[in-house]
User: Fold this.
Amino acid sequence: MTAESSVSGIVPPVALTMGEPAGIGPEIAAKAFAALQGTLPFFLIGDPRHLPEGVAFTRIDTPADALGAKSLPVLPYDFQTPRVPGVAQAEHAQPVIDVIAQAVDLTQNGRALAVCTNPINKKALKDGAEFPFPGHTEYLSHLAGDAHVVMMLACDALRVVPATIHIALSDVPTSLTREKLAQVIRTTHAALIRDFGLDAPRLAIAGLNPHAGEGGAMGMDEIDMITPLLDDLRAEGLDLLGPLPADTMFHASARAGYDAAVCMYHDQALIPIKTIDFAGGVNVTLGLPFVRTSPDHGTAYDIAGTGKADATSLINALRMAHQMGLARRQEST
Assistant:
């Protein structure tokens, strides 16, 4: 941690990336500052020209300059050309990537508290800069030295972790190895202690098959792999429920019995949280040496520039980044 962030115990601000400038990132950044001003310090890294017309901003030279700012603090990064809402431009691809790396660097050297990322468009980055990563998560893992990372989606009522993510459903059974599932469960357990302040996290583990296999009548994955693994992890001291039928895990009384649910595939995790809180969910990357959150939505090209974008998810992502960052600072002192 640098002197800039440690003098008098001053807490540095959260670093917010611009994301894809043709999307809604610039608009929701401005709305988030208006909503959070005076309660949660953050700064935007990007090109001030990409902000909506009429938005007041303060050009800053260092993250510390964002503290107490009366208008949206922007650490400038030249994207070369203005934005065209809804239309990605090839020349913006590399700056989008560079801004993410800058936010990570500022956070790792203690000048920013955490990273919060606005949405990117993977195809635009691949077309414009030959971006070799499937998305934010994999790039952040690369920047962290190929850390083993896990995706969590969180809202006030539910936290879910998919053990497999963006793969075909037919590929899930072969991808879902004992080693992979164990790593996901352990990473989730550790993050709930480190970043969410839970002394003894309770994890609910979904089965892969309908009715969690129903004793082998609907599949043997639970009997052959999931249950033995959970027994071994319980012997290590982890508090685990399951494997549970996924169709009975997410009603209110069931959710009261655990702190996070580990699911076997993408939709098993994301359908319940998006049903419960479609606008307010937050994407959190667990397992990184720094805190990273993101709104749980895409670039929304179709409404970019219209002023219709809902900033709720970004506001929640900034709040969660701040809270997790404070937990990390407390742990290190």
